[in-house]
Design goal:
- The protein has 382 residues and is mainly alpha-helical.
- Helix 3 crosses helix 6, helix 10 packs parallel to helix 12 and helix 15 packs across helix 16.
């Protein structure tokens, strides 16, 4: 087999003359000056509007920078309108759950659709385009008419309901609705519409499906967050503390229940403990759903309920159950120069002598001896 290699031909452009170079340079300079003048005029106009109507420069620039009317929208497509019309006709007699999707419908009846579309006249195709265009304009026009006649504020968002649909997202909003969306969601309305579309097409509206997609680490984090947020809410509601109360899983009964007279009611996994120690992922899903649906929530106890709770906890502690967990022992380093490793290894007897001296100093009531004895180490019961 003979392979013919075609030599690569290099196309050489004719050199520009001095006049052509000058004209091109002048054109580039003129374009740059025109853009700079437009930017300067834009900045000045934004400053004038901001000063006159008492708006911020940032807000005014954002309104002027809106590209409405500057970018042409894609014209309606007759083929898309024709296939959507045929799809709607085919789905009218079918129950929900058995209806055709657009991609499947085109793949199944592609030849029939193509033949039918080719039989359309120019006027019929133009009529289909007109329907789509009227539908686009009516969405915005209806809202504009309502706001102009009644002065109401609002927004309208419509997105595709399935990932295989090809409908374009529609969004309309009044100025105050726009500021509301940005303030609440921290997103521009257009980005908010995209988030909404991804939520709908991703089937995140079913809470069970959403939680089962999450990893165990994320489930633990969400459980802890919901528990802490509920604790913050009840502490603020009943003014139980001026400082922020952090959830204490290890010493829950003493530090939370007995101290603030509140309890986490509806716990789904035995006794209240750190979600990270629950273990089974299915139990985490059940707990998270209970917290989100407020089946597991914080409630306030009465004085009598707290007294009964304390008596029950003391009885359980006497029976050997771990209810009150002591705080960890804290060792504080002694003041002065640090001892070397050689000295530390041979200080068994010297440490005992120091402890005896500190005890003697403590019995004598010396303030200095008491301070040194306290600095050596202490066990604090929680």
């Amino acid at each position: 087999m003979v392979v013919n290699v075609t030599p690569k031909i290099k196309h050489a452009r004719p050199k520009l003359t001095v006049t052509q170079k000058t004209n091109r340079r002048e054109k580039a300079i003129g374009l740059s000056n025109a853009i700079n003048d437009a930017r300067k005029a834009y900045q000045e106009q934004a400053a004038v509007i901001s000063e006159k109507y008492k708006r911020s420069i940032k807000w005014t620039r954002l309104q002027l920078h809106n590209d409405t009317g500057l970018r042409k929208r894609r014209k309606p497509n007759a083929w898309n309108a024709f296939t959507s019309q045929k799809l709607n006709e085919a789905n009218q007699a079918l129950p929900v759950g058995q209806r055709w999707k657009l991609t499947t419908f085109i793949a199944e009846y592609g030849q029939e659709l193509t033949a039918g579309y080719c039989r359309l006249s120019v006027s019929e195709k133009e009529k289909l385009r007109g329907k789509v265009q009227n539908l686009r304009e009516n969405h915005v026009k209806i809202w504009e008419d309502i706001t102009s006649r009644t002065g109401v504020e609002g927004f309208y968002i419509a997105v595709r309901g399935d990932v295989e649909h090809f409908h374009e997202s529609k969004i309309f909003y009044t100025p105050r609705a726009r500021s509301f969306i940005k303030e609440i969601s921290q997103l521009d309305p257009k980005r908010f519409a995209l988030k909404f579309e991804s939520w709908v097409t991703g089937d995140f509206d079913t809470r069970t499906d959403a939680t089962h997609r999450l990893s165990s680490t994320k489930l633990i984090s969400l459980c802890r967050t919901n528990i802490q947020e509920g604790l913050n809410a009840i502490v603020k509601k009943y003014k139980l503390s001026k400082k922020k109360v952090t959830m204490n899983y290890d010493n829950y009964e003493q530090k939370i229940v007995e101290t603030y007279s509140i309890v986490l009611e509806g716990w789904t996994c035995g006794k209240v403990r750190n979600p990270g120690k629950i273990g089974r992922r299915e139990d985490l899903v059940v707990l998270l759903n209970a917290l989100v649906n407020e089946h597991c929530l914080w409630i306030q106890l009465t004085k009598e309920q707290v007294e009964n709770r304390i008596a029950t906890n003391c009885e359980r502690a006497k029976n050997g159950e771990s209810i009150y967990k002591p705080c960890k022992a804290t060792k504080r380093g002694a003041t002065g120069d640090a001892k070397s490793a050689d000295v530390i290894g041979d200080t068994d007897s010297s440490e005992e002598e120091e402890e005896e001296e500190e005890e003697e100093q403590g019995t004598e009531g010396g303030a200095e001896g008491g301070a040194e004895g306290g600095a050596e180490g202490a066990v604090v019961m929680g």
